[in-house]
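Explain this one:

_____
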Amino acid sequence: MPQQTVLITSATGRIGKELVARLAKDPAFIVRACYFSETKADSLLALGADEVVKFDLSDQGTWAAALAGVSAVYSASLDPMLQGHLAFAKELGKRRDQIKHVVRVSCMGADTNTASYVADQHASRAGAGIPLMLQHYWWGEKALIDEGLNVTALRNNFFMNHLLKTDCENIDREGWFSNPLGDMRNSFVATRDIAEVAAVVLSEGPDRHANKFYDITGPAPQSMSEIGADLGRAMGKTIEYRAQSMVDFEADFGATRAEFFEYLTNGFYTRCSPDFYNLTGHKPTSYYDYLTTKGASGETGLEELWQGNLWKKGEDAMKDAAKV
């Protein structure tokens, strides 16, 4: 079979790096990895990318070169970039004869094609709707589906480490972190596991995975205190969880993100899905193992914890996206 070129958007992100490293070992693919900053291009080549290309969802002038000759696309985008993704989905739709498969990173919670969610009906709080961020994830899937593309959506639980990135300084200097999740357990997922599933789905192709929607979770639900204990064991120090009020959290990050975190407090993300095992043949990665072992890109989860983060205290990163 001739090689197919796969475009990996967000290739320098936590999932993207792992996917580049995995697909680089698959002789069926020519891996074209996207970068936003020129400074990241060499690192993608070092991971095994065959080609690197500038790509920016907010700059349509970068799209043609990125998509030239591509037959499969791994699609991921930061939450505030929703409008850019919706426009890019239309561009992919114009090329539906060329683009045979799109694998989209999404989130458990607001789909209406495999479940019967009502946007204005919260799972557990009367008078409140499904969080807007979760609706956005479904819009991101639906935009691709509506274009007639062969779509596989990876509906992930909340990422391991994602909760802690805004508290790295406190963790390092004072040994504590805070958020409003309290004692609720959630089956947080390792980003390397999402990449492994994406690699399997792309390798096996649309004949097997088109119009499929997989819930990817961790192997066990954990509370914040249990997350802190695992992190402390990996770091060789005591890490304390300090509960935060939702009011204070909203003041830190804005209403749109706060209503999403409220979903994390109501048990919706507690369950553990079998989809990862059914796709890969083994259990998902535990948080402690994620922290202490290396993924395909050569990083441990502990090393990844200290890397860049979209969310900053005192900034509402979703302010503009909430208007879409």
